[in-house]
Amino acid sequence: MAKGHRSQIKRARNAVKDTRPSAKLSYARMSVQKACYVLDVIRGKDVQTALGILTYNPRYASSVIKKLLESAIANAENNNGMNVENLYVAECYANKAPTMKRIKPRAQGRAYRIEKRTSHISIVLDER
Fold first, then answer.
1. Phi and psi at residue 125, to the nearest 5°
2. Contact 73/66 with Cβ under 8 angstroms?
3. Rounded to whole angstroms, how far apart are CA atoms 70 and 86?
4. What is the torsion angle, in degrees rounded to the nearest 10, for the CA atoms of residue 67, residue 69, residue 74 and residue 76?
5. CA gap 127, 99 in Å, rounded
6. pLDDT per residue over 8-45, tens digit each?
7. What is the spatial distance between Cα 54 and Cα 61, in angstroms, rounded to a whole number?
8. Do 62 and 94 meet the contact criterion of CB atoms below 8 Å apart?
9. What DSSP line would sit under 25-61, residue for residue?
10. 97 touches 60 (CB < 8 A)
11. Neighbours of 30 (CB within 10 A)
């Protein structure tokens, strides 16, 4: 059981805010596994190197993640006043989102289920 009034507990929980610049894409039309292949490559790299990797990566997820990374860089520059040369990808991860269920007709009147998976992708930057 938590100690204190509900408003005190909420105030204490909300006081611990992460001030690092970030960007989040919800309901991206790709599976978590496919997004993680690309995210694992750029994790820990500085933003210029990460943008170069994403530009020439042939996977579909790289174009989506590149756009998200550019958004996080713009957030750092405009909202936090950070220098772009010092930024690096501190955290990047993909979480599971709702799956769209579809049906594919098959032989002899059967129906197979097709699962169109979606994901929530997050990128957090930090200064060196």
1. -105, 165
2. no
3. 15
4. 170
5. 35
6. 888 888 887 778 999 999 999 999 999 999 999 999 99
7. 9
8. no
9. EEEESS-HHHHHHHHHHHTTSBHHHHHHHHHH--SHH
10. no
11. 20
Q: At 96, which amino acid appears?
A: K
Residue with tokens 């996977």: 59
Q: Which two tokens stand for residue 102?
A: 């579809």
Paired tokens of 12: 């204490």
Cα angle 32, 38, 40; round to 5: 90
What is the topology classification, in CATH, of domain 20-127? Ribosomal Protein L22; Chain A (3.90.470)
Report residue 117 as tokens. Answer: 């998976």
Structural domain spans, the chain: 20-127
The two structure tokens encoding residue 79: 């909202």
Model confidence over 92-104: pLDDT tens digits?
999 999 999 999 9
Q: What's the distance, CA 105 to chain centroid? A: 34
